[in-house]
Amino acid sequence: MKKCKTCGEEFEPERKTAVYCSDKCRYHNWLANKKRVTIPADMRFSILHRDGFACRYCGDRPPKKTLRVDHVVSIEDGGARTDFANLVTTCNPCNAGKGKKSLDPSEVPPLAD
Ligand SMILES: [Zn+2]
Ligand SMILES: [Zn+2]
Asked: Does the reported pTM lie above 0.85?
């Protein structure tokens, strides 16, 4: 038995290399990946600029931390992909801690002046 990478259900793979229980799960994962990597570059920059080039969770800046732009509510949970309100600047450690989880938007610290 194997665990499906999308839904986590156990299934009997037809092929040894199978990682999804069904075409539906394979498609869902493909879609999630496709959406996740396509925040347009200019939008990414706008978010960094809005957040003052500092991590919204810990406040660290480069070169101490590498910054990235991440979704507050993940795409998998129905978050908007290119909505300014759903995007935050994070550093790699903070983002790694969050993983693919969604946050309550009210948990994101407000912007410093
Ligand atoms: Zn599945
Ligand atoms: Zn951080």
From this structure: no
